[in-house]
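Q: I'm a student working through a structural biology exercise. My instructor gave each of us a protein and asked us to get a predicted structure, then write a short paragraph describing it. Mine is Glucan biosynthesis protein D. I'm not confident about reading structure output yet, so if you can add a plain explanation after the tokens, that would really help. Here is the sequence I was given:
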Amino acid sequence: MGDNQRFDPAVVIDIARQLAKKPFAPLPTDLPDVFANLNQEQYAAIRYTQPPVWSSEARGIAVEPLHRGFVFRDAVDLYLVEDGAVRRIGYSPSQFEFGRINPPNNLADIGFSGFRLLAQNGNGRPFDFAVVQGGTFFRAIARGQNYGAIARALTLRPAEARGEEFPVFRAFWLERPAVGSNGITVHGVMDSESTAGAVRMTFRPGDMTIVDVETTLFPRVNLEHVGLGGIASTYLYGANDLLNTNDIRPAVHESSGLQMLNGSGEWLWRPLHNPETLQISAFVDNSPKGFGLLQRDRAYESFQDDEQRFERRPSVWVEPLGDWGQGSVQLLEIPTDAEINDNILAYWRPKAAMAAGSEVPLAYRQYWGWTSPERPPLATVTQTRSGRGGGGRRRRFAVDFSGDNLGENLPTDLKSVLTVGPGTFQNLKLLPYPERKTVRVAFELDPGNENACEMRLILEAGGKPISETWLYRWTP
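A: Happy to help. First, here is the predicted structure for Glucan biosynthesis protein D. I'll explain a few features afterward.
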């Protein structure tokens, strides 16, 4: 659908359907070297100088096209949908300031790398709440937050020996919001060697920014390893892995753990870890109710970082819309020594392969904010600490659970239930602090000669859980 054509959402899906019937054609590499070879600082100096699209129309949401360059080299076509008609946004170097960069003379229309969404907040200044740029990546924030975790509309073969496949967006159609609207709908076509697809995303900014994602995939080949609802984040270190840390900051991470609400209604919490070797965890489930990477610690004192402000990074919760069937929440923890790397990836992996030539629809809702919209009606894990044990390879652990049910009227039959396998545990202690509505469980892990130990811990009273389930994989 090009200039002056009538817009039809069904046509976007049909474009992806027809695209999948053809061999994959790589995106053109037409970006001038002056932009392709930029460093991050040089790229950040490029500024869009025009009024954001629709900013003068009191529609509540405006759009800012983003320049190509640095790692954002692929071109994507941007179309506006106004009164049902399609209008392409043309590129011109006059739309940008380039800092110390000298763009080529007679620069052609090189397209854009993506777009930024802006809203008006209560004091009238624009509120930057979402960015869609690069691959099939997008990110959002709630009001008052800093960007952190990043979502993927589609993930293919992560951490496989043959290499990950990175699909890309080829075009977007952005529907002009109604006047005073608090939402914008964006349609896109994505493509890769293995599959093509259409996506419809509705963004609603606010104190919690909500993104509804509807995807239809058209596999060219049988897809055996597909990641849906993917979220990437950074975890360098925290209280559970301070070994070999030489930094003035007590913690460096955008997300502190993976929370899950499985199909049987059990709340699970898996603290993140920066391992010595790649770790892949699979949490098998049927009809999951939700999962997400959360930043639970919101205290400045926990990070002491005056520039990054990790306590302001968003938590991201994914809620399936419809029955996702059998599969697993996958967690990848990739070793890193740099905080600029997104070394954490969580996504849903369907058990059944997607057959070549099929059409696979799927929908979910994302919540970007200070906490998840769904929270356990139980005590939750507020901190996991780990350090050297009594000797050999032993490790000490302290897990803090907090909640209103752990205050002055603690159950008399409160107990902790800990399982370890392989390996053993010793010196299990239950330490209540009712004035803080907290119970600490302390123990020592003895892994023996093992190089990985899975642990599971929960608080019980009256034969029933009164806390979420703490899960942890220890590795050397």
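A: Here are two points you could use in your paragraph. The chain has two domains: 9-369, 380-474. Residues 9-369 form a domain with the Beta-galactosidase; Chain A, domain 5 fold (CATH 2.70.98.10). It's a good idea to check both against the output above yourself.
Q: Great, thank you!
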